[in-house]
Backbone:
């Protein structure tokens, strides 16, 4: 069985600073993928970034990067240069779209 | 992602009525997931379907809930005899080849009055 854990219910960050949102996972699969989604207050789920377990490099998409540490089973999302529009709920998920509990990020001006 | 279409966006039903939620996956995607989300909570997995096949329905209540994904047409999540506790946002996601992209529809917000 797969399990995703996001231990930070809420985070604050100052505008223009970087922030790391934690995600740890557990799986017995040799090959798997990790996803991050953003859910703003409007409710839609926005796909941000994907990391494959066999990808040699950490995934990056614009201001989003994934700090993938396979041995530690962690896949933390790093948002650089935070913007006010980054305030939202963020979810980590595994291959079969098993989701963590989410982290609410608030960006302060 | 605009490619995954869910309708209706909002659905109001009286207790005891049936609710039908539709999800059309992105073009080329043949797998669909359904989730339920209560306010201020995460997404709870309900069911995972391939065309004409239920792969995993472990998250779906045994009674009143059913899902299908026919060969032609959208995936349907059906809730019979709705109760107030069914009020939630229901999201579907479709997943593409290689499982490296998974996009969500905008959700259906079900309100049972």
Residues:
């Amino acid at each position: 069985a797969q399990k995703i854990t996001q231990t930070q219910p809420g985070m604050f960050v100052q505008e223009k600073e970087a922030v790391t949102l934690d995600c740890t996972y557990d799986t017995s699969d040799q090959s798997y993928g990790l996803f991050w989604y953003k859910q703003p207050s409007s409710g839609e789920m926005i796909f941000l970034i994907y990391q494959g377990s066999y990808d040699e490099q950490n995934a990056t998409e614009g201001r989003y990067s994934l700090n993938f540490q396979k041995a530690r089973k962690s896949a933390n999302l790093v948002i650089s240069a935070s913007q006010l529009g980054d305030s939202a709920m963020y979810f980590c998920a595994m291959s079969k779209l098993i989701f963590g509990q989410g982290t609410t990020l608030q960006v302060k001006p | 992602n605009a490619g995954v279409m869910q309708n209706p966006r909002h659905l109001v039903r009286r207790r005891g009525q049936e609710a039908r939620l539709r999800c059309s996956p992105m073009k080329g995607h043949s797998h669909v997931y359904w989730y339920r989300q209560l306010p201020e909570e995460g997404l709870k997995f309900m069911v995972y379907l391939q065309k004409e096949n239920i792969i995993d329905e472990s998250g779906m209540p045994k009674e009143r809930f059913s899902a299908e994904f026919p060969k032609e047409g959208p995936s349907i999540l059906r809730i019979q005899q709705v109760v107030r506790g069914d009020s939630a946002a229901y999201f579907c996601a479709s997943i593409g080849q290689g499982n490296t992209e998974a996009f969500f529809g905008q959700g259906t917000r079900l309100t049972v009055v």
Summary: The radius of gyration of chain B is 13 Å. The longest strand of chain B covers residues 43-50. The interface with chain A takes residues 1, 33, 35, 42-43, 45, 48, 56, 89, 91, 93, 95, 99-104, 106-107, 109 of chain B (CB under 8 Å). Chain B has a mean pLDDT of 92.
